[in-house]
Amino acid sequence: MKAVIPLAGKGTRLRPFTLSTPKPLLKVAGKPVLSFILDDLVQLGIEEVVFIVGYLREAVEAWISQHYPDLLAHYVLQEVQDGTAGAVALAEPYIDSDVLIVFPDAVIEVDYGLIRSLHPGCGGIIWAMEVENYQRYGVIVTDDAGYMARIIEKPSEPVSKLANIGLYYIRDHALLFEGVRHTMISEPGKAGEFYLTDAFQYMVDHGSRILPAPVEGWWDAGKPETLLETNEHLLLSGHGGVDPGATVEDAEIQEPVRIEAGAVVRGGRIGPNVTLESGASALNCELEHTVVGPDARLQRSRLHHSIVGAHSRVCDAAGSLLVTDHSVVEGRA
Fold it and tell me: Domain range holding 165?
């Protein structure tokens, strides 16, 4: 089995951070979202991955090469942002077996064991979860046997609340790419893009059975507010704690927190839901629901629901801040 991971998007909902950092490399609980995904794939036994790259591709490729040197990685440039089907279409020359397709917009927990136990007559799995804001998603309508009958991209009417979350296993890869090619010569969708969900519909219409499978956990990291929520979940799920190599003096710590080796805290209050990455310092600060990047320096500041980029300096500030790497903020706390 191989994997395809589309990474070409600009991540506009996470600006200003994505002006200098690719969206999949933004961190939650001290770890890039892409790393959570790749760790799962490696554990699953996947050794070959096709990365669809575009925006800030050099940074993406360098990071993957450094942190996952044993992966057989193929990088394919998506020059035109023409949608999810257009991204996956570029991977076709590399796919000659069953394939896992993962969109790295969230930290996901699923039972990958379903792949091995899938009925031989099934063409694939589409992981899905119940949502209230169904208008944001491709939603799945099932037949009486529980298989996908229709998938509708961002419906205006409440035909279903079972939303696909961007994770797919396709056994019948030949029919998948037949569907992708059919989609690419059809009329584009509402936003002028070609949707991968239309290729899945093509598969079903041509006799394939695709099984919707439940999601154990899905934590969005596509917006600042949801990134902070995901950070909190991960801190509560074993990714928190104060590293023995951190310095904490005369400060109140309210769990959950993640204070990494080399971080310095003196005075003030840290937490809940605070990550201080390696080399960051918080001197006489009150921080909650905040992520502070490596080597950032905070003094006499009271911040909540904030993201502070690496190597930034924040002094005497109060409120909620979203500042990217190497920023300087000075105010009256």
Answer: 2-220
